[in-house]
## 1
Amino acid sequence: MIEAGFPRASNEDLLAVKEVSKVVKSAAVTGLARLNQKDIDAAVESVAEAGRPMIHLFIATSPVHRESKLHMNKEQILDKIAADVDYARKRMPYVIFLQKMLRGLRMIF
């Protein structure tokens, strides 16, 4: 598996992931995406020409991220994970999900 970049980070990243996807046919090529539809759509577009396209979704779930950045409680985050993974799976056969945390903090699950 080759994680080729974060397509929504910049137009350059989007184009770079597309180029990797055009030439790599034997390994899975992934585009990184946060849990939101614009990121997911960019990742899907970027790996469309890969032999084995895949997207890699993530969300930060530490208490600091939940409270200060996402403004969500644990239940809301779980609902968002379910909804956005479902959205991604309708567009891409292979989806990886990662719950990003800071070292030393417990998982919310």
Note: The domain at 2-100 is CATH 3.20.20.70 (TIM Barrel).
## 2
Amino acid sequence: MRLIIAASLILLAASPGMAADGKALFNAVCARCHGTDGSFKLKGKTAVQVETALEGYRQGTYGGPQKATMQQQAARLSPEDIKALAAHIATFQ
């Protein structure tokens, strides 16, 4: 599974413009664990909450039991990716 996620991230990084598409990035990288509608731990989060969490994972200052998994994912995200993901996730109600 890690190989699939890593390959998805590499493809996204190599595709100009795609990384800024929060929905496409979410579906390629996040949906496998969080569900396509964010039903696993993401519904109701604001963009600020998501950005704060992802930046914290990147810096190793945030997280619970799944910290290692999320740190690996967040480490590969650009600041633009994080903003795009946060904006998309904030649409989940």
Note: The chain is about 65% helix and 0% strand.
## 3
Amino acid sequence: MRLSHRQVAGWIISISVLFGVLLAAPVNWMHPSVEVSGCSMYPALEPGEIVILEPTSTSDLSKGDIVAFRAIGTLVIHRVVEKRNRTVGTKGDLARKQFWFEQRITDSQILGRKLFSIPLPWNPDRQCRTSPPL
């Protein structure tokens, strides 16, 4: 039986995804993870990527860190651009300016700092490459 190129590609993708899940499973038990759903951090993070977080506080964060936090009733993953005594300010890489809800992030809002991310072997949302900055 001879397999077509499409079938071989499907097997390779399936095995790669399974391998990635098996590798990430132990990490997920020790660290929380979140899925990227928007384009605000493109090209650093793309929609569908899984970001593994490490627990942190505002005092441990530095400018340039990528942090996940809760604000305005939703989950946000943005880069730290300002550090103050007990708060940090963040901004999406594609954003022209900082939004009001990301100017003073406190410890109680922070879910964690990006430890590493698991990219998809394909990008289901190609609009990030053509979207204008926010």
Note: The longest helix spans residues 5-30.
